[in-house]
Amino acid sequence: MLFDVERTTVAGRPALTVRGELDIASAPDLAVAVETVLAAGPAALVVDLTPTVFMDSSGARELVRTARKVAAAGVPLHVVAPEANRAVRLPIDLLELGSVVPLVGSVSDIPSGLEREARP
Questions:
Q1: Domains of the chain
Q2: Bridge partner residues of 47 (DSSP)
Q3: What is the Cα–Cα distance from 111 to 108, expressed in whole angstroms?
Q4: Whole-model pTM?
Q5: Most distant CA pair in the chain, distance
Q6: How many Cα atoms sit within 13 Å of 107 on the Cβ side?
């Protein structure tokens, strides 16, 4: 399956929908897409991994980098990683990325609207 990062809107927020395999070859493409969105000064960002079919440690590392980069920009982030998508959730859960990456199980778990969310 080909890799693609599509710019979309999810729950009223700019989003990057990741399709295909998020691995050592494609992780840099996600990094470029995140930089492009952040350059526009979004009020929030969603990274949707629902259609992602595989993720290796390079993809996991890029999610951590994304979370840190987006947090440094003061932009709320939601990473959609459904429990049913074992190809994505297994590395996320094994590496305990939920402690660093703000995860939600589905798009419906993201609060609607563009208002800035409280930072913990």
A1: 4-107 (3.30.750.24)
A2: 16, 79
A3: 8
A4: 0.90
A5: 38
A6: 16
